[in-house]
Amino acid sequence: MHRIVNDEALDTLFRTAGTHQAWLARQVSDTMVRALWELVRLAPIIGGTGPTRVVFAKSDEAKARLDAAVPADRRAVLRSAPIVAIVGCSAQTGLSAAEGTREGLLLAAYLILAARALGLDCGPLWDFDTPEVDAAFFPDGSAASVFLCALGYGDETQVAPNQPRPGFAEACNIL
């Protein structure tokens, strides 16, 4: 059965989904984090084995471990967020490194969509020192970090405006 979500859902997931860099003083419950994972783990993936590992850095101490790995201007964003998701691709999956990375990035995208669907706002971060994050959160080498995302309830008065993006004619071809 094929279903199309309604306009309200499309607004939540895409049209009004800005990048958040400021957060309300409202915690994200562990129950919400578990619900988030329960959605993400159901998403279609390449290998079907779930090589992605996610660390949800919630404590001040855990978030402080990211400081050395992120640009100085992003530290306050991550520190003030209720949670920072650290997505890593597992090293023990039978997939090649490239396949594992692609699968980790695919699940990172699902994480954003699931978070938005559950009412959370997102502040994705791609610019970080991977070896530094890996040493802090995957010291046994069991995974390699591919994505960071601040999660919480964003301050709507401080949402970064979306940058212009190319339209269909500039970005797409139908062959």
Report on the structure:
The protein has a four-stranded antiparallel β-sheet, with helices on both faces. The mean pLDDT is 90. With 175 residues, the protein is α+β, with helices and mostly antiparallel strands. Helix 2 (30-40) crosses helix 5. The protein has one domain (7-154): NADH Oxidase. It is 38% helix and 17% strand. The two termini are 27 Å apart. The protein is globular. It contains seven helices and four strands.
- Percent in helix: 25-40%
Low-confidence stretches: none
The third-level CATH topology is NADH Oxidase
Domain module tally: 1
Total strand segments: 4
Give the CA-based shape. Answer: globular
Please identify which CATH superfamily we are dealing with.
NADH Oxidase
Order of helices and strands: HHEHHEHEHEH
Question: Using only CA atoms, what is the Rg?
Answer: 17 Å
Distance between the termini: 27 Å
The secondary-structure class comes to alpha+beta
> What strand order characterises the main sheet?
1-2-4-3
Mean pLDDT: 90
- The CATH first-level class comes to Alpha Beta
The biggest beta sheet is recorded as: 4 strands, antiparallel
Going by CATH, the architecture would be 3-Layer(aba) Sandwich
Helical segment tally? 7
Strand content: 15-25%
